Amino acid sequence: MSNLDPDPHETISGGRVGVATEPVRELLEGRDVVLGGTRGMSVVRTLPNKERRMVGAWCFVDSFGPESVNGGPGMRVAPHPHTGLQTVTWLVQGEVLHRDSLANQQLIHPGQLNLMTAGRGISHAEESPTGHGPVLQGVQLWVALPDEHRGVAPEFDHHRDLPELVDGGVRVRVLIGELGGALAGQGSPARAYSPIVGAEVAFDRDAETRLSLEPDFEYAAVTLSGAIEVDRVLLSPGSLLYLGCGRVDLALRADQPGRLLLLGGEPFDEEIIMWWNFIGRSHDEIVRAREDWMAGRGFGEVRGYDGGPLPAPAMPTSTLKPRGRLR
Ligand code: MN
Fold it and tell me: 162 alpha carbon to ligand 1 midpoint, in Å?
């Protein structure tokens, strides 16, 4: 998806300042994003948040739906660019058709992973396919690429068979990275460029489980559906629970069916600048990426989408500078 905020601001994210080195339970409210490009979709952004910008290399968490797309076009996100990040598309209900400038065309269903590595530049479009189901629900996540890898060639991967652990009424599917404990060795085949993990925990009924965590990682949880108790905090959709570092495990419990996304990673040392769909290290770099997109340079062409590309919003007039590498 595109960052559909019609008036995006530059955001500085990353760096060790503010990382909780001990376990914490910070409940952070998401915000409704004013839609610029799609119809019939509500989006809640829990990351970046006013209080917290990143969790490991995870730097963007947008949840959409559940939304009725019955009898309508559904999702229609026109061709738009990305740099310096990976996009993770994960559905709870419905389906989305992805097309990109590398000529990939991929339909995604719930339980499958679309991972697009923008690297130095890619463009893509996402839409509900013809004959789509009545309801659409999912998340779009971004992973910041470390400086040494952010210039890699763009790539798109679709993973339909992710490792899954079943523990009673709980199913854990690892999207990226790996979980320890009973899931040790069952890493996701998805390519990561920094130490991170993303996993979906699905409760089929009232149940509880305990996940092994990596003490050096920081973690956060986002509920996709239902209400899940995370370390004794009841977490509903629309908020992100930041959990800090220093945990060896995490207790999860639910009274009803529900789904939770666990995100974690080594705190991201580098400060990054996010603006619209670009991640860079300087304001000038973002300005250049915007100019290239508007001039039709460097991002290839998405074929098959019924409509023109998304124009970039106007750049904000203020200039941001990251403070550079910390630690
Ligand atoms: Mn996108």
Answer: 22
pLDDT average per 10 residues of sequence, the chain (327 residues): 76 82 96 66 90 95 93 92 98 98 98 98 97 96 98 98 90 92 76 97 96 96 98 98 97 98 97 96 95 97 96 82 49
How far from each other are the two terminal CA atoms of the chain, in whole angstroms?
A: 33
Question: Ligand 1 centroid vs 173 CA: distance in angstroms?
Answer: 23
Backbone angles phi, psi at 149, to 5 degrees: -120, 0
SS3 label, residue 327:
coil
CA 201, CA 257: separation in Å to the nearest integer?
11
* Domains, the chain, with CATH or none: 11-271 (2.60.120.10)
Distance (Å) from CA 290 to ligand 1 centroid? 15
**Taking the CB of residue 257, how many other CB atoms lie within 10 A of it?**
14
Q: Tell me, what's the pLDDT at 15?
A: 78
- 317 closest CA partner among 10, 12, 5, 2: 10
Could you tell me the distance, in angstroms and rounded to a whole number, from the CA of residue 24 to the centre of ligand 1? 32
Residue 305 CA to residue 78 CA, distance in Å, equals 7
CA of 71 to the centre of ligand 1 (A): 24
Contacts of 306 (CB under 8 A, 6+ apart): none
Which value, to the nearest 10 degrees, does the dihedral of the CA atoms of residues 242, 245, 250, 254 take? 0
